[in-house]
Amino acid sequence: MKKKLTFLFMILCAAAVAQTSDDAYTRYELLDPSTQSFRILYDVTSTAVGSPFYYNTLRKGSEHKVDGVIDMMTGKNLEWEIINGADAKKTGYAEAQNDVDYLKIKLARPITTGGEYRLKIDKTYKDPKSYFTAGDKIVFDRPLGIKRNSVVLPKGYELIKCNYPSQVMMEADGRIKISLLNVGPAEIPLLLEGRKLPASANVTVSKETQAASSAGGQGRDKSKARVDYSFPERAYQTREIVYFLQQPETHAFRLYHDYTETREGIDRYLNVVRAGSKASNPSARILDTGKELKVETLKGDAIKQKGLDIGEPVTPETEVVAIWFDPVQKGQSARLRIEETYADPNRYVLYKDELVFDRSLGRPFNTVILPEGWFLTANVIPAVVDLTSDGKISLYYVNGSPDELDVLIRGRRR
User: Fold this and answer.
1) Helix or strand or coil: residue 124?
2) How far apart are CA 179 and CA 177, in angstroms?
3) Which residues sit opposite 140 in a β-bridge?
């Protein structure tokens, strides 16, 4: 009886909660061209508080096979089943279409307010309309609706055509990967073409390149070629930051930045406060569970006494916000949200009745929200402009480059 009541309660909860998600990333691995099939690794974050399930649409026109679903925090497999649209509606997914199949995933823990649940879905599609051969070429022609994607060619194939601005990199096993960030509001009509390489082609990645620094281009010696230079796949990165500008007379802005730690054994996040800025009121929590974390602000010798390596020389003025969490276990990960207030009288000022925010932003996804009562008069780097729920102006920057954006915003009082 207890099990029946629990099941009914879960269904009622699901019926009352609309599905919402974030941070979606798709990796398409093209299989042997003769199969007209591709493996899909789909990372997605469910943000619907109280929902016991997550529903993933299985696209019409493709033969689908699901290989598994992983809880990205714990690394454990989750229970799932494939159901039709009618059954998806009955169990709580009101947006389901009757003629579409869905992957129904049972979540292992509740999503707390302000929290999230990260999933990795592993499935394979056979879709002759999306993946086919044309003469001596392979073609991947598919509209992509989510914002972060990569396509991996079969081993031994080169890229000869890509119709959307993308990064190209060779993976450790010699396969070519094409990675892209969609900066627009519509889906991308992606068209890729590949061609088989001759047997003599070198598809070996050197150990030097694999181990090379992945630092961005800012401050590098531009008189020399970057040999053995590795770079991050921007589309795969999940770092994002939101700045809430306070009134400019204060030179202050509240911010939060989200970060996923995947390295085994890591138990800390060190935020080096930028020179000229002052950090205050820091806090942090694990978004997967809502757990509050220990945070401390250290300066000068206190950093050395803790034995912290911040990647640069420590001076008496060096300031670090240290966030501590349980060491990441093999196959697991942790998603952190770090909040703090910065005061920066050099880069956020009031000048001749205008607000001026001039700051370099290094993350792939950046949002700046103007203070209440201000309207936008200038923006140097292209951004998506919108209103927040409380009527403030927001600017959203997507940066597909490993380099930083030198953002300059000006505004005036209404």
Assistant:
1) strand
2) 6
3) 131, 192
pLDDT value, residue 184: 87
The token pair that represents 157 in the structure block: 């194939």
Region label for 166, one of left (φ > 0), alpha (ψ between -120 and 50) or beta (otherwise) = beta
SS3 for 318-355, per residue? Answer: CEEEEEECCCCCCCCCEEEEEEEEEECCCCEEEECCEE
Instruction: Note the Cα 194 to chain centre separation in Å.
Output: 27
Element (H, E) at 9: helix 2-16
Cβ pair 160, 135 in contact under 8 A: no
- Cα–Cα distance, 331 to 314 (Å, whole number): 33
Tokens of 341: 């207030």
What's the CA gap between 338 and 326, in Å, rounded? 16
Give the tens place of pLDDT for each residue, 137-196: 999 999 999 999 999 999 999 999 999 999 999 999 999 999 999 988 999 999 999 999
Cβ contacts of residue 399 below 8 Å, gap of 6+?
A: 234, 361, 362, 363, 364, 365, 366, 405
How many helical (H) and strand (E) elements, i.e. helices and strands, does the chain have?
Answer: 4, 28
The CA–CA distances, whole Å, from 411 to 349, 350, 351, 377 equal 11, 10, 10, 5
Q: Write out pLDDT tens, residues 363-398.
A: 999 999 999 999 999 999 999 999 999 999 999 999
Query: CA 54, CA 305: separation in Å to the nearest integer?
Result: 46
**Phi-psi map region of 353: left, alpha, beta (phi>0 left; psi -120 to 50 alpha):** left
303 to each of 50, 152, 275, 279, 379, how far by Cα in Å? Answer: 41, 43, 16, 15, 37
Q: Are 295 and 366 in contact (CB under 8 A)?
A: no
pLDDT beyond 50 at 402: yes
* Edge-first strand listing for the sheet containing 374-379: 348-351, 354-361, 405-413, 374-379
Strands 354-361 and 188-196 turn out to be unpaired
C-alpha 47, offset from chain centre: 14
| Domains parsed from the chain with CATH numbers | 18-25+38-124 (2.60.40), 130-199 (no CATH), 237-413 (2.60.40.1730)
Whether the CB-CB separation of 357 and 368 falls below 8 Å is answered with yes
